[in-house]
Automatic annotation (TrEMBL):
Residues 5-234 form the ABC transporter domain. It comes from Modicisalibacter ilicicola DSM 19980. The keyword ATP-binding applies. It holds the Pfam family ABC_tran. SUPFAM superfamilies: P-loop containing nucleoside triphosphate hydrolases. This is ABC-2 type transport system ATP-binding protein.
Length: 308
């Protein structure tokens, strides 16, 4: 799959001496939803700012739809729409005017047809004559997306797109993002809501201390790094795990009423048949069982924790 964004050996060191990015290599595929995850201060905002032309790189190259962000700045920037986290809009301007003005900033000829389509796609058409100050937080965030799409970019950066909105609005925004991808826009989002990445992303990238530590297909990541647990609900509670079961990764839970067995989902053999046989030999009986797999959040926390 062709790359719409190509980052090679990208580093950024600020005047203070702080190195925010360290030799970052990253390719983002055309037409995908890519989630960039990382703790506060990991370098997410700096990386986005460099790609969007807001911060100059110290070294390395970035291509946006084939255009170098330094040597072909105007063409590269025209490929990109950026939705910032902060709700920065002209409070007393109308929705129509503020979105149309944003298109003009990129030197694009007026196109009422395109602005109308964007507003309708984002369920803003009925609000087109409303002043921004009268809109809810969720609607203002939609206006930011409309502004970012006003010049018909191929790439859209969403920085914390659902920060500060309630669960219902968050799910509405997810549908908006899926719709944009269906229209051919490549989406790169940063989020603190890991469930958002788990729900929407095609691929996940994790950045920590200015370095990309992992890029993986979401499903493959959860299969590769996720651990599975088998929980057995016992007929009779145990005070401790019998020594005859020490060969299995077991722990007691629910005040001795449950045995939890952790195993690697990637292994050809899970060890479950042997465990069940050893339980029977030990005279331990269970009335129910269920399995669950690590969430993306658990995988993310473990990845970051393991970094120095």
């Amino acid at each position: 799959m062709p790359a719409v964004i190509s980052v090679s050996k990208l580093s950024k060191t600020y005047a203070s001496g702080f190195q925010a990015l360290k030799q970052v290599d990253l390719e983002i595929h055309r037409g995908e939803i890519f989630a960039l995850l990382g703790p506060n201060g990991a370098g997410k905002t700096t990386l986005i700012s460099v790609v969007c032309g807001l911060v100059n790189p110290s070294e390395g190259t970035v291509l946006a739809n084939g255009y170098d962000i330094v040597n072909d700045y105007r063409m590269a920037r025209s490929q990109i729409g950026l939705v910032p986290q902060e709700l920065t809009t002209d409070a007393f301007e109308t929705v129509w005017n503020t979105v149309s003005f944003s298109r003009g900033l990129f030197g694009k000829a007026a196109s009422p047809e395109h602005i109308e389509k964007v507003l309708k796609d984002l369920a803003l058409w009925d609000k087109r004559n409303n002043r921004l100050i009268t809109l809810s937080g969720g609607m203002k965030r939609r206006v930011l997306i409309a502004k970012a799409l006003s010049h018909e970019p191929q790439i859209l950066f969403l920085d914390e797109p659902t920060a500060g909105v309630d669960v219902e609005l968050r799910r509405d925004m997810w549908e908006v993002v899926r719709g944009l991808r269906a229209n051919g826009v490549t989406i790169i989002l940063t989020t603190h809501y890991i469930e958002e990445a788990e729900e929407m992303a095609d691929r996940i990238g994790v950045i920590s201390n200015g370095e990309i530590i992992l890029v993986e297909e979401k499903e493959a990541l959860m299969q590769k790094l996720g651990r599975k647990q088998l929980t057995l609900q016992l007929q009779e509670p145990l005070d401790s795990v019998p020594s005859s079961l020490n060969g299995h990764d077991l722990e007691l839970a629910a005040e001795g009423h449950e045995l939890v067995y952790t195993y690697d989902s990637q292994q050809d053999r899970t060890g479950i048949p042997g465990l069940l046989g050893d339980l029977h030999a030990a005279g331990i009986h269970f009335k129910d069982l269920h399995t669950e797999q690590s969430t993306l959040e658990e995988i993310f926390v473990n990845l970051v924790r393991e970094r120095p």
